[in-house]
Structure formats: structure tokens, C-alpha cells
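Hello Y.,

Per our agreement to keep a running log of every chain we model this quarter, I'm adding this entry. I've kept the format consistent with earlier entries: sequence first, then predicted structure.
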Amino acid sequence: MQKFFQFHPKMNPFHLFSVEHLLTIALILIFSVLLFVFRNQIQEKGKERIFRFSLAILLLVSETSYHIWLVYENAWSSKTSLPLQLSDIVVLLAIVMLLTNSYKLFQFMYFAGLGSSIQAIITPDLGQFSFPHFRYIEFFVSHGGVVLACLLMVVTKKYRPTIPSMWVTVLIVNIYAACIYFVNKILKSNYLYIMKKPKNASLLDYLGSWPWYLLSMELVMIVSFYILYSPFWLKRKIDEK
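Predicted structure for the entry above:
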């Protein structure tokens, strides 16, 4: 049990696309597919509310336990532990969205929440924490939970993203990034990876050197948002025929 929570675990560090990582991605994908397969059962009276609130509680427990663990291990730092990464912010917003059924929040979360969480799941910044460490499990529960939260709104509430909301999300993310730049200057931190690339392998490795990769990130974000919107565009085109 001690090894499960140890901040400096004596285990192999995380390896991108290892067997454990690929199985974790597959598990999140399976849960996502099951949401659509069992959508009629989930929408039954009372079940949708239970499912939605249970997911919100799971995300809250996951996020809270992470910070308690950091404090207990004397590892909490304003330079690295504040929930300022976009993939961290959307965990908190997902909880609010699940509890309030906010359509306006969904419009942001579908793009920023899904986009950042999928990126985090595919190229996680986990360092020395591999399966079955607490941080590994907590990380994928949080980010996988955000993916499920967004899809749950699509399945049960029939919420749909729009192109205007996509561009509003792009604007919000850019304004937020500008604010975080000054936070990074003050704290000497690297939230949103604005100041430098992460140490672990990531998409940023292919986007050029600083500061040019920031412009590449902007393009990748817009393209990924269009990809996320494409299923709804395709469905509309099919329905129009």
C-alpha cells in the first residue's frame, strides 16, 4: 500500500504507449462506446440523474484526493500543483456541468474539455508514476471522467456543439492562456506549457521550438476542434439527404 501512494516510487517510470497505457486508453474508449450502446437505459427516469451525480462525485473525489496526496507527501507547490492546466480546469468545470446541466458550459466543455482531456490521455505528463501507482489511476480517472461527462451530455441531454461556440471557445482559451503567461512569470512556473515544452514526450515535440510551437499549438487546437465537431456535421449532412 505504501508503494501505491509513494511520491518517489521504486517502480519503472511511465512509458508512452506501453501495454498499460494502451489498455487504459482502450478501457476509456470502451466506456465511451457503452454510453451510446446503453443510452436508452441510462435515460430512464431516475437513472440519468444517478449516473450524472455519481460521475460528478467521482471527479470531485479524484481531484480532491490528488491534492490531499500532494500535501501529505509534502509535494504540493504553487509552481506545479495549482489546477491551472486546461486539462485540470475542465475537471472542475465538468463537475459543475454535471450538477447543473448547463448547456452554455457544455458548449465550452465539448471542445476545450474533450480536446484537452483526449490530449492528456494520449500523451500524459506522468513522469515517474506508472501503473498501478495512485497518481496513474487518479490521472486517468479524472481525464477519462471528463470525456465521459461531455459524451453523457450528448447522449442524455441531446446537447450539440455549434461552430460559433467553437470559435468562442478558441477565444476564451487564448484569453486564458494570456493570463496564465503572467501567472507563469510571477510564479516561475510552466502552466499550459507556455514557457517551455514538458519533459515527457508529447505532441509539442513535433511543433517546433519556443516560441514558434505556441503558434503551432493554436493551429492544432483549431483543427482538433473541427475534428470534434465533424460527427455532428456529417450527421446533419446525412439527415439532409
